[in-house]
Write a structure and sequence with these properties.
Layout (H helix, E strand, L loop, with lengths): L2 H6 L3 E3 L6 E3 L3 H12 L5 H8 L4 H8 L6 H7 L5 H9 L5 H8 L4 H8 L6 H7 L5 H46 L3 H18 L1
Antiparallel strand pairs: 1-2
Helix pairs in contact: 2-4, 4-6, 6-8, 8-10, 9-10, 10-11
Length: 201
């Protein structure tokens, strides 16, 4: 049993430096970093400071934080870890310039992750639909189809709401013409009747 490891809750391991050693963060320190990196209350400047010494695992969490600024996301989009770059690609704060850079990322998983993200600009998705990798291209095309289908649903829903509002106005005006009563009285009676009909059903 490593007595030093038990007492200090740390382990020493060789670094890339010649003959030097550095300390691995204790478990509590890693947990704290994870909490800071994922919290919606963490300020952008705190995320920036943490990113300077964080491991790739923590950097991935930072890149996924909604408070991560575009400047930091741009830097993380160039990280050696594909997972960190993918997390940066999926963040809504990532600017268009960085997204275009990621469209040409060497890692297929990063481009595929972009291709399945329906929140990014359609121009980016169209570029990915012409990707040299058929899986990425197909995924981008499907995402574009999904966006178009959702747009149609919204348009149809809006048309139906407009139709109902128009019919309601017509009916109220008709009631006013028939009875000659105050429009407000007619409106109150109309909704009272609707309520009674709903209870009867």
């Amino acid at each position: 049993m490593n007595i030093i490891g038990m007492e200090c809750a740390t382990t020493f391991y060789p670094s890339t430096g010649c003959g030097s050693h550095r300390m691995m963060p204790a478990k509590d320190e890693i947990v704290n970093d994870r909490i800071i990196a994922t919290s919606s209350k963490t300020a952008p400047d705190v995320l920036e400071a943490l990113s300077r010494t964080a491991s790739p695992m923590i950097l991935e969490l930072i890149a996924g934080n909604g408070n991560c600024p575009a400047s930091l996301l741009k830097r993380l989009s160039k990280h050696a870890s594909a997972q960190v770059r993918l997390a940066a690609a999926e963040n809504s704060n990532t600017n268009l310039e960085t997204l275009w850079q990621l469209v040409n990322d060497d890692d297929i998983d990063v481009r595929f992750g972009l291709a399945e993200n329906h929140c990014i600009p359609e121009l980016i998705l169209r570029a990915l639909s012409a990707d040299e990798n058929p899986y990425v291209a197909c995924r981008a095309a499907k995402t574009l189809e999904r966006i178009e289908a959702n747009r149609q649903v919204v348009a149809e829903s809006k048309s139906w709401k407009q139709f109902r509002a128009s019919e309601t106005r017509k009916r109220l005006l008709q009631l006013v013409d028939e009875t000659g009563q105050n429009p407000i009285t007619q409106v109150n009676r109309f909704f009272s009747n609707l309520y009674n009909y709903a209870r009867a059903i």
